[in-house]
# Entry
Amino acid sequence: MRRIGAELALCLQDARLRWVGAVLALLLAVAGLGAWRDAVRYGQDVDAVTAAERARWLGQDAKNPHSADHFGLWVFKPSAPLAVLDPGSEPYTGRMVRVEAHVFNDAVYRAVQEAGPLARAGLGSVADIVGLVVPLGAILLGFSAFAADRERGTLRLALGNGIAPGRLFAGRFAALLIALVLVVGLPLLGIGALAAMSRDAGGWQLWPRLLAWIAAQLAYAALFLLVAMLVSLRARTAGHALAAALAIWVGLCIAAPRLATTAVEAFVPAVSYREVRARLDAEMRPHRTAEANDGRTREILARYGVSEADELPVDLRGLMMVENDDHHFALYDREFGAFFEGIAARERAFAWAGLLSPRIALQALSQTLAGTDFAQHAHFVWTVEAYRRSISERMNTEIRDRPQRGGTTLVAGPELWREIPPFAHAPLPLARALADAAVPALVLALWLAGVGGLCVPLVRRLKP
Amino acid sequence: MGASALPADASVLAIDGAVKRFGSRTALAGLDLRLGDGEVFALLGPNGAGKTTTINLILGFLRAEAGTIRVCGIEAGEDPVGARRHVAYIPEQVALYPGLSGVENLRYFATLAGLDPSKDEARALLAEAGLAPEAHGRKAGAYSKGMRQKVGIAVALARRARLLLLDEPTSGLDPSAAADFSATVRAAAERGTAVLMATHDLYRVREMAGRVGVLSGGRIVEEIDPTALDHAALERLYIERLAEVAS
# Structure
């Protein structure tokens, strides 16, 4: 501990730490506070519009339940509280879905439509800054760890006077890591705590999520600190160490992610959304014709052993809607299930592609822990679909079980509308997120172990 | 019995047949050397004779192609960190952290070496090394070479190591500082520290060393008892030996 204290005191003497810390803290604070302000505003909008939609649903006129099903309503996706830190897929996936009879609607209105210049530059979020800029900060702190001492001559004095290279490395790494925790971890904790305290975090298990998320970011920062120190162990001068570390940063943070994305898209083909819609359309069109409808009517009458609809113990139209929807539900489950599974397969492959770039591993890990990954979006989409189906089923059974004779039409009122509960969405639990995070966490750990392992022989052979 | 006849396991430093080449150039061609507790040995030789190479081999910064180098019985090539635990070292150019004071530099290096000197202990060590008290708290960036050298001496003294390695220790020191340094080295030797110094400074050699080895062509060509010669005789002998080897 005394050694770490001595290294930390030396580190604090260096103006670099103050500059790097100030720049990182400022960038993180600007991105984090901006995202927090947007999130609070969005949360208020969601609350207001959700209340208005609920009032509109409950206040609709008396009408046939199927008309009410078509009357529909909008439901909104609650933003994950930690989207303030890592918006993940949220800006690129829709935020609101129209719930109505028969149709599995897309989520519409993407936050990216309002993206400012900073976001378009790829530096709009705290996670972007951690992914790209924090490694630079770690490199700026770590590149001189041994090379500058070698250049200055202090390494010769230190090693020649019995200072064990392993302890020197460990003390220096620990001190620089503490410095990184101060300049990166604390701002992240501050922004996360602000989000946790000011936003509805029901069901998110927010504090363990936040701490795990910050630990992942710090592990990533520590990796680049190790990279910089690894280079510094060999470089003759601090200038050479900085140049080499920056070249590695370009490779790992900019070039490799592009390569990995292209490779994943090439090797893990996924069904396109257009193909899914085309297939659904192709399967539903013959089901919707008058001939098909007549055929199903005849089949129902035969099933009940009657020749007229008025002789049925149930309402024919209601029963046909129930059975039509069951047919559609099965189609949606099959086609959208395959579509979302294709995307999930790509996400899993992308997590393994983190072996090419730790930035990719962090991206997958960070989004999963923040609750902004595609799995959360898919979960929301299916929750909305389940809600839509529950409304359709309630309206259809109301019609089916109250048969109208002589061509009259059932009219329902507010009592039925009130039976439909407000839309409620519970996020995927933390346990699921941790399970999904296992692969990217393992990949990031492999990176740390690999770079740390490369340091070991260089530390043993450390020369002034 | 001369110290050079000490058995390897009784020596603080035992070098046997050390060979070191840099490409086609042979820096050391079978160097033998023994050093016991409290002995001061001066390696005399021109530039490129292999003095600094010898020190780098002892510190484990270089590895010999042949022969062995043992510090307190530990093979420096195999276990350099273990060997260096018994060594204190003052390089020719002592480099310090310019933003730290003399006291802070000393405490930093001592702490990393596993010691924990207080500020008062650090000041006492700096005073023992000859650094004026008013300079103790000044930033090392403003120190002269001599002042930096004295902090280096204090770092070495703090370790109370069994072997003190000095590489051109008086180079650049003013006469008063060099005299102080000689006294410090003699005091260390009297406490039982073995001292190996690489130098050109014949005057200080006579003042400090009990044995002198003339290093040329990668080996010790003659070992001299400096107390038996005056300064002029020592200088004459040194030049003659170098001329013989060159011819």
Summary: Residues 2-272+332-460 of chain A form one domain. Chain A is about 70% helix and 0% strand. Residues 83 and 372 of chain A are 6 Å apart (CA to CA).
